[in-house]
Every structure is written in structure tokens, then in C-alpha cells.
Amino acid sequence: MFGRIVFIRILQAIPTLLGVATLVFFLLHLVPGDPVDALLGETAMAADREALRQALHLDQPILYQYGHYLSGLSTGDWGTSLVDHRPVLERIVERVPATAKLAFTSLLLAVLLALPLGYWAARHAGKSQDAAAMSFSLLGVSIPNFWLGPLLMLVFAVGLGWLPVSGMDQPGSMVLPAVTLGTALAAILSRMTRSSWLEAMSTDAVRTARAFGVSEHYIWWWHAARLAAVPVITMFALQLGAVLGGAVITETVFDWPGLGLLTIEAIQRRDYPLVQGCVLIIAAFYVLANLLADVLGLWLDPRQRYV
Amino acid sequence: MSKLVADLAGGCLLLPLLVLVVAVVTGQDGHAIDLDAVLNGISGAHLLGTDALGRDVLARLSEGLQLSLLVGLTVVLFGSMVGISIGMLAGWTGGWVDALLMRVADIVLSFPGILLAIALAAMLGPGIDNLVMALVAVGWVGFARLSRSQVLSFKSVPFVEAAIANGSGVPYIAVRHLLPNIAAPLLVEASFGLAAVIIGEAGLSFLGVGVQSPEASLGTMIREGTSLMLVSPSLVVWPGLVLFSLVMAVNLLGDALRDKLDVRMDCK
Fold it and tell me: What are B97-128's pLDDT values in tens digits?
């Protein structure tokens, strides 16, 4: 039963991925006027223009371009960078480790901060501790990471000189980007932890456990925690994908050589095939993370399988 | 709790309001370049100092703030109009129309929020109208999903069935019977959406794909300030602080509205 539902969910992700690829394909055609003009300027030599047009297959009918693009995607030919003429996929792959490292660290940080905070707020629901924890959460959601980053830099790198300003070569260079990226995640996760723990505490299972005289400590950490874990874990899996969106800005702020920075560099150089590749890979990760969240939810909470 | 939230929201609005009012009073031009007064500190003429081109920071803050609000409200207005129409159409019609429209929504939701806006804005080119278009293209989805689920739950309520039996046309039912009943959650969605759009505009401008110089946006001001952080830290502190207070106020407003209108936001 479970296997079959998971299989169906995986199958359902395929058209979504196809839709994502289609949207990314049409991005290039959003460039106003002639993309070749946009890239080379209107004064370029006719031969250069023709060469570029052929390189981007813009001289072919759009359906052919689309078919060529899709078949290229499936065979690993994601096009060639217009700037350094290297394969797009190769340029993307070499940037993945940096982003993975940053994403992993900030997620870890977010979890280590959010779970205790959420528990603490739930334990003191309605009191000042709760208000304090949730104020932090609101702050974390409202503070834009492109401001938090420079602020942290200003205080900890420029002012106190404890940490490097940017890049990823020096020890400690991970700290500020990870905090910047992790803050919003921690805010969202702590809010989720609090509310689902509180919700779990008001279930019949907990009431029954209380009636049986189970200790309050045991109820919080065993009965309620297991119930509360489902939405929190699902939310965490969703954040796996969302963190990549935040990485675009955070990496730009800290000059962190990952996928996000590559995307922005490609945009600045109008390297359209590379922009397409970057957007596609990040969206694909995102779709997979959502799928993972879905499957985890089904696995942890069998009730969801019948909805 | 709700009273406290409203008070906090008011407190957060204070800074943006102050910026707007004082900028009008001092009457400086945010575009006037003065190369003799580059990176000046606080002075009588320039209450918050000047930037790298000698422009008055306060005047630019006020201009950026107005832009944030203008873009935010425009995007939410158009996004909600598009989204609510699509969502209501999908929910009411059902069948393949619903399936098709919701697949489109799913695809838009398959991108991390800001990424699609960045890509669209980058491809469309710089300019405020392109920025608005990119943000609307991402922002309508929330309204569409919400209004669809709301319409589904109201479709078979007696007063709607009575209206159908009465021979009322679909547009009439949509406007007179459905919209007033689904307005509350949509209003809450709109206020959180406004906060997201304001951050989105500043974020895109920060990345250089939104508002371009010499036009002032809080996002471009933060970017310019970041590069001058060592010389003049206040250039990055002020625009961020104003942006942050504004977003915080709007988020708190959303919270207050949600409590007041008693909306459960789990229908998304």
C-alpha cells in the first residue's frame, strides 16, 4: 500500500519536472526583442550574430528548439556557456559542493536552534518566555537576508574582526553565511515546532496518557513528541528546497562560490544558457525536496495515505 | 495578545512614517548629486548624511520607501485579481479546467519563491514594470490556491445553491455571494503577500535585476551601502532598518488581521 502510493507520487513528480523544464525553456524567449541583439548589441558583425543564433538554435522553429532542449536535458547536454564556452552542466556540477556545504550547515544550525526554542515556547505557552521565543521567530522571518548578511559582516568581521568578511577559503568563513541563511529557517521551524507540539498536547492520546498517570515529562517527550514530529519533519524537508532559494542571495552577499552566486553571475553576464541551467537545477532540487517531504509525511503518518 | 500585536505594528510603522514626513519637511532632492559632499555624516542639511555621490540619504530612503509601497501594493493588487479570478474559476468549474489551472500553479510553486522572480526579472530586463510583472507572475499562485479551496467549500452551501436555483448568473454569484464570504482569508493572504513582495522587490533590486540607479530602492541602497561598509556603515544600516520595520509592521498587521478575522491558514 505504502509502496504503491510512493510510486504514484514519484510518477506525479515527472510532469511537474517537465513543466519546470518547459517554463525554463521559455525564459529565454522572454528576452525582449532578439536575444542575439541583447547579447551582442545591435552593432555586432553579421557573421557573429549568425554564429550565436546557430549556437542557441534560434534559427530553428520553436518546436524544434524545444525538442532539442528536452532531449539535450535527458542526455546531459545542457548547452554551452556563452562566456567561457564550457558545458553548462560541468559549470553547475563544480559549484554544487559549495552550496551543499552551506545549505547543510545552515539547516543543521536551524534545527539545533529551532527545536529547543520551539519546545521551550510550547512548554511555557502564553507566558513571557513564549512571547520572547515567538518574537525571535517573527524577527527571523521579517529580516531580509540581504540585510542580515551585511549587518553580521559589519559587526563580526569588520567591527570585531572575529570572522572573515567573505569567500570560503579561510577558517570560520562558513559561520556568517550559515547564520544568515539559517536564521529564517530557524524562525519558521521553531514556530512549527511550538504549534505542533502544543497541538499534540491537546490530543486524546495525551489526555488518555494523563488519565493513566503517565508522568508529564514522559508525555512531553514520548507521546506528544512523536505526534509533533510529523509536521516538523515534513516542514524540514520542505526547507531543504527553500534553502536553495535563500542561497542565491546569501551567496551573493558573501561571495560564496556556489550555485546561487553562479546564477547571479550568469545573469549579470547575460549567459542565458547558464541561467537556464542554474534555475533548472535549483528548481529540480526543490521539486525533489517537496517529494521527499510528501513521502516522509506518508511514511510517518499513515492517516495521510487515505486522504 | 491582539492588542499587543497591533501596538507593536504601530511601533514598527513609526520609523517608516518618520522617514516619509521628515523627508518632506527637509525637502532635499534625492537625485541631486553633490560631489563636494560625498559620504558626509549627519549634518543640519543632511539629517542622515550623504551617499557616495553626495545625495541626501534621507530623501533617498523616503523615495525607496515609497517605491517599496507602490510596487508592493501594485503587485498585491494585480496578483490578487489574477489569482482570485483563476482560483474561483478553477474551483467553480472543476474538471479539466481546474486540473489544468492547478497544474500551472503547481509548476510556479515548483520554484523556490524568489528564484523564479529573479529569473523572470533578469530575462525581461531592468525597469519597474518588468519588476512588477515578475513579482505578479510569482505572487498570484497563493491567491489562486486559497480562493479555489474556499470556493470549493462554499460551492454546495444552501445560499449558493439557492442563488443557482434562482437563476442568478455565475458572475453575479461570484461577486455577490462568494467573494464576500471568502474575503477574510484572502485579506490575510494579501497582507502576508504584501510583506513578501516588499522583501522581494528589495531583494531583486539588491541583486541588480530590479530597480536601477539613479532610481532609489531600499534594495539598491543596501547593495551600494554594502560596498561602502568600511567607510560609512550607516549607508547599509539605514535602508535595511527602514525595510525591516516596514516588513515587520506588515507581518504584524497580517497576524492581527488573522486573529481578528479568526482565519485558520491551514487551507493552503
Answer: 998 998 899 889 888 878 889 989 988 888 89
Residues near B263 by beta carbon (within 8 Å), at least 6 away in sequence = B184, B185, B188, B257
Q: Do A245 and B114 touch (CB under 8 A)?
A: yes
- Domains of chain A in start order, with CATH, are 88-306 (1.10.3720.10)
Q: Most A CBs within 10 Å: which of B110, B198, B235, B251, as the mutation test of the A interface? A: B110
Task: Chain B: give the shortest CA distance to residue A2, in Å.
Answer: 24
> Which of B226, B248, B255 is opposite residue A150, by nearest beta carbon?
B226
CA distance B88 to B258: 22
Predicted complex ipTM: 0.86
Range of the domain at B90: 2-266
Q: What is the C-alpha to C-alpha distance for residues A283 and B111, in angstroms, rounded to an integer?
A: 5
Kind plus residue range of the DSSP H or E element containing A44: none
Percent of chain B with pLDDT over 90: 34
B221 inside 8 A of chain A by CB: no
Does B107 contact A143 at a Cβ distance shorter than 8 Å? no
Counting as low any pLDDT under 50, the low residues of chain A are: none
Q: pLDDT tens, A109-157?
A: 999 999 999 999 998 888 888 888 888 888 888 899 999 999 998 889 8
A62 touches chain B (CB under 8 A): no
- Cβ neighbours for A302, distance < 8 A, ≥ 6 positions apart: A2
Domain holding B78: CATH number?
A: 1.10.3720.10
B203 interface with A at CB cutoff 8 Å: yes
